C-alpha cells in the first residue's frame, strides 16, 4: 500500500513518510491508494480481541511492514497503559436501542486521547529510529491541544506548539493545555476562532520552505494516522454489542465538527464494517448538516455554543470524503477546492447529493436542545452527558429507526464542560486530575490572528527549543 494526495500532485509515499508529511505538499490530504477489505469471517474472529489487539490487527493493513511487529506492539501497549478503564473504550447500554461508547477514559478525558497517545509514541519512535527532529504544530477547538501535549510531553526529540482560540474553549480545556510547565511546549492563544487558527496552520504547512526549515509535523486530523487510529473504536463498538443486537441494523451517531471522527467511520465502513447510517451530529455551526441536506458546502457565521469543540465552520477532513464522492478523481477534487477558495462555497449536483444522503444523515443541534437532552438523560437514565455527546444523542433520536440499534460516541467527560451543565443546576463530582487544575499557574502567549506574528513566535520557540534540546 502507498499513500497519495486527494489532489494528485504528490508522489506516492510509504506509511512513515505519510506520517511525517501530514498535510500533503500540494495542499491536499493523504489517503491510502487502496482501502483494504475485511471479510465477515475476519470480523467474527476479531470479536474476542481486546482494544489493543484489535488496534494491531487494523494497523497491520496499513503500515506496509515499515514498523516491526514487536515495536508496534510496544507502542500500543504504552499508548493505552494510562487509560482509566481496562477496555480503553467501554460500551455502555443506556436502553434497549441505545449504547454509548465512552471515549473519555484517557489522560485528558476526551476522545482525542485515543489517537494522540499513540501518535505521541509513534512520533517518538520515528524521531529515534530515523534521527528526525519532530516539531509538532497544531490547532485545537479545545480537546486536541491538551491530548496532543499529553501525548508528547517529556518525549525526547519532540517539541510542540498548539494554537487555540482565545476565550473560546472551556476553562478546563484551557487549563489542561496551559498548566503544562515544559520548555518544549508552547501554547498560543489566538484572538479569533478555531477556523482562524486552522487556517494559519494550513498556510504554514503550505509554505514548504518554512515547513522544511523548522521540521513541522502535523498532529491534527489532517494527518491520516489520526483518522486510522479512530477507525479502531468503530470496529470495537460494533464487535462488542451484545448477542441481542446481532442481526439488527446498527447506526452510529458521532459528534463531529471537523469531519475527522465521522470520516474514520466512513473508512471503517468502506473496509467492510457492516454498519447502517453514519449520523453526523453538529451544533449551530452546522455546515455539515447543510451539506448533507442541500449539497451546499458553505461556511456560515461563527457561533459560540455549549459544545465548543464543534464550533467549526470549515471542516478540514471534508476533502477526504469529497475525493471518494467524486469517484476518486483528484482533478475534480482540485477544481472543487479551488472554487471553494475562490468563491467561498461549492455545491454538488442532485446525483451526488443522493449518494451523500445514502451514506450520511446529519443534525445541527440548538443550544437549548443540547441542554434539554442532558437533563432528560440524567433524569431518566442517571447518565450524565457532556454537551457534545448530548448533540450525538439528539441526532440518534432523530434518525435511529424502529428496531434499529444506535451507538453514540461519548467524546468527552462532562467535567470538562461544567459551564453548560451547571446551567441545569446539575452538580457533578470532578475527577481529581481536573479538580486540581485551577490551582496551577498558566503558561500561554496571547497573539493576534496574524500569520506573520505566529510565524515569528514559532521561529523563536523552535530556535530556543533546539538550544534546550
Automatic annotation (TrEMBL):
Record field: catalytic activity: O-phospho-L-homoserine + H2O = L-threonine + phosphate
This protein's pathway: Amino-acid biosynthesis; L-threonine biosynthesis; L-threonine from L-aspartate: step 5/5
EC number: 4.2.3.1
InterPro entries linked to this entry: Ser/Thr_deHydtase_PyrdxlP-BS (IPR000634), Thr_synth_N (IPR029144), Thr_synth_N_sf (IPR037158), Thr_synthase-like (IPR004450), Threonine_Synthase (IPR051166), TrpB-like_PALP (IPR001926), TrpB-like_PALP_sf (IPR036052)
Sorted UniProt keywords: Amino-acid biosynthesis, Lyase, Pyridoxal phosphate, Threonine biosynthesis
Sequence intervals crossing the membrane: none
Record domain Threonine synthase N-terminal: where: 2-80
Protein name as it appears in the record: Threonine synthase
Amino acid at each position: 500500500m502507498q499513500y497519495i494526495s486527494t489532489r494528485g500532485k504528490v508522489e506516492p509515499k510509504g506509511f512513515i513518510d505519510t506520517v511525517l508529511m501530514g498535510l500533503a505538499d500540494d495542499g491536499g490530504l493523504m489517503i491510502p491508494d487502496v482501502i483494504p477489505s475485511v471479510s465477515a469471517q475476519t470480523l467474527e474472529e476479531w470479536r474476542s480481541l481486546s482494544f489493543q489487539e484489535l488496534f494491531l490487527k487494523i494497523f497491520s493493513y496499513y503500515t506496509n511492514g515499515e514498523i516491526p511487529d514487536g515495536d508496534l506492539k510496544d507502542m500500543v501497549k504504552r499508548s493505552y497503559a494510562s487509560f482509566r478503564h481496562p477496555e480503553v473504550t467501554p460500551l455502555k447500554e443506556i436502553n434497549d436501542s441505545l449504547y454509548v461508547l465512552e471515549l473519555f477514559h484517557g489522560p485528558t478525558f476526551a476522545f482525542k486521547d485515543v489517537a494522540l497517545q499513540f501518535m505521541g509514541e509513534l512520533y517518538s519512535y520515528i524521531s529515534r529510529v530515523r534521527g528526525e527532529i519532530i516539531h509538532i504544530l497544531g490547532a485545537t477547538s479545545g480537546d486536541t491541544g491538551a491530548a496532543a501535549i499529553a501525548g508528547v510531553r517529556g518525549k525526547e526529540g519532540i517539541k510542540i506548539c498548539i494554537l487555540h482560540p482565545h476565550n473560546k474553549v472551556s476553562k478546563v480545556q484551557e487549563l489542561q493545555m496551559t498548566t503544562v510547565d515544559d520548555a518544549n511546549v508552547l501554547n498560543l492563544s489566538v484572538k479569533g476562532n478555531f477556523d482562524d487558527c486552522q487556517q494559519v496552520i494550513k498556510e504554514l504547512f503550505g509554505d514548504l520552505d518554512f515547513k522544511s526549515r523548522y521540521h513541522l509535523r502535523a498532529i491534527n486530523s489532517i494527518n491520516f494516522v489520526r483518522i486510522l487510529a479512530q477507525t479502531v473504536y468503530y470496529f470495537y463498538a460494533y464487535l462488542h454489542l451484545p448477542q441481542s443486537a446481532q442481526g439488527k441494523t446498527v447506526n452510529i451517531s458521532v459528534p463531529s465538527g471537523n469531519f475527522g471522527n465521522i470520516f474514520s467511520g466512513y473508512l471503517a465502513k468502506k473496509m467492510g464494517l457492516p454498519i447502517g447510517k453514519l449520523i453526523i451530529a453538529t451544533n449551530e455551526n452546522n455546515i455539515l448538516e447543510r451539506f448533507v441536506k442541500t449539497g451546499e458546502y458553505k461556511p456560515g457565521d461563527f457561533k459560540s455554543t455549549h459544545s465548543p469543540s464543534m464550533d467549526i465552520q470549515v471542516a478540514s477532513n471534508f476533502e477526504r470524503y469529497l475525493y471518494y464522492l467524486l469517484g476518486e478523481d483528484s482533478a475534480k477534487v482540485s477544481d472543487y477546492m479551488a472554487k471553494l477558495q475562490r468563491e467561498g462555497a461549492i455545491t454538488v449536483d442532485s446525483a451526488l447529493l443522493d449518494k451523500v444522503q445514502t451514506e450520511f444523515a446529519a443534525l445541527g443541534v440548538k443550544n437549548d436542545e443540547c441542554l434539554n437532552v442532558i437533563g432528560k438523560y440524567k433524569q431518566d437514565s442517571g447518565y450524565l452527558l457532556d454537551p457534545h455527546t448530548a448533540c450525538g444523542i439528539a441526532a440518534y433520536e432523530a434518525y435511529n429507526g424502529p428496531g434499529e440499534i444506535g451507538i453514540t460516541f461519548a467524546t468527552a467527560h462532562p467535567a470538562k464542560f461544567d459551564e453548560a451543565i451547571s446551567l441545569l443546576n446539575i452538580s457533578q463530582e470532578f475527577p481529581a486530575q481536573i479538580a486540581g487544575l485551577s490551582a496551577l499557574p498558566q503558561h500561554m502567549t496571547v497573539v493576534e490572528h496574524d500569520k506573520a506574528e505566529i510565524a515569528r513566535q514559532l521561529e523563536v520557540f523552535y530556535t530556543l527549543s533546539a538550544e534546550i534540546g
